[in-house]
Amino acid sequence: MLFSLLSSAQNLLVNGSFEDENICTEYHEPCAPEGWFGNTGGFKNYFVDSASAFDGSHYLAIEAGRTRNKYQRSYTRTQLLCNLRKGNKYRVQFFLKAPTSILDSIGIYFTPTDFLFDKNFLYTIDPTAYAIDENKPDPNSHRWQKINFTYTATGNEKYMTIANFSKRDINGETGLPSETHFFVYLDAVSLMPLNPDEKLCGDWEMARTLIYEVNDRHEYFERYVRFYRSQNKVAEPPKLSLTRIYKSQKLILKDELFMPARSNLQNEGYAVLDNFCNNLTSQSVDNAEIETYADETGNAIANDEISLQRGALIKEYIRRKFNIQEKRIKVNGQQQGQVTTSTPSSSAKPKKRRVELMIYLHE
């Protein structure tokens, strides 16, 4: 069994489905999703409705324009969990829907500093990408539509903002009864590395905790932003760790490298094991798996016992060599009756007794 980090790529954004609610310090109520901030323009933009949400029960609204207010818009931004690797490719994905045909100019904007302190109007900014760049949202559909981007990192990304970056104003009548806002609804946001071996940084949980601990919203947070803007400054950007590139290395220790019918390695066996592990000491080992296999000859109990003892020997060697916790090394003992042939064919030769060592590590 591998760690969850090794089994699938991880979202580099917190709370992408908006299910975790922030309890704001000003009103002591769930008025925003954890980890996401924005200028709401005085309207409610956080909704709880499982029938309307794309994923779960929570979703956000972004104001793309207003009937009579020129260039009236809102945005939402979040901090990344880890630094992206310069030159590596990532997939940005989210789901949008709107009661009017305004999805083409919704875009993403990566910044090295917090966009909350940016004084520029959204329509003056050239975003990282518009939805229409790589997607063809159906203007006649008012259901959830998937938006995808392939993004090549610069290595300076700390925050991502989603908003309407159209150069033209969206105003006039919405065509909806008693509604003066042109809304776009947002859900299920993710940022994933395209390299399947690239995963979250080692301290992503601490980064998420720090992001979630910021509970000021509304006027409290606006005061914070106004203070920095009055000083013509921005808040110090977070120090994030690089994503990790995970790899695996495998070694097969054949039966002849051990003393006959015993658990100890011969000198040649230790040399093979030493050489394999010494080539890995410059990298960080995360965990290891040891598979022990028994052959089909001789006494079954004795064979199984020898195989398990050999697994224990390799486990202790790995623990000391890489100074990792014992719980990070798993030994799977395959008993005589469990390992019979290398293929389902009845004519296949039985597998010989051996020990297979798999090391999982990152750069």
Describe the structure.
- The structure is a single chain.
- The chain contains 6 helices and 17 strands.
- With 363 residues, it is of the alpha+beta class.
- It has 2 domains: 227 residues, Sandwich (Jelly Rolls); 119 residues, 60s Ribosomal Protein L30, Chain: A, CATH 3.30.1330.
- It has a 5-stranded antiparallel β-sheet with strand order 3-6-11-8-9.
- α6 links the parallel β15 and β16.
- The radius of gyration is 28 Å and the shape is elongated.
- The two termini are 21 Å apart.
Features:
363 residues, alpha+beta, Jelly Rolls, 60s Ribosomal Protein L30, Chain: A, 2 domains, 5-stranded antiparallel β-sheet, 17 strands, disordered N terminus
Order of strands across the main sheet? 3-6-11-8-9
User: What is the C-level CATH assignment of the largest domain?
Assistant: Mainly Beta
Nearest-integer average pLDDT: 87
Distance between the termini: 21 Å
Strand coverage percent: 25-35%
Residue ranges: pLDDT <50 for 5 or more in a row? 1-8, 335-348
The tally of beta strands, per DSSP, is 17
CATH architecture of the largest domain: Sandwich
Give the CA-based shape. Answer: elongated
CATH topology of the largest domain: Jelly Rolls
Whole-number tally of structural domains: 2
**Count, helices:** 6
The value of Rg in angstroms is 28 Å
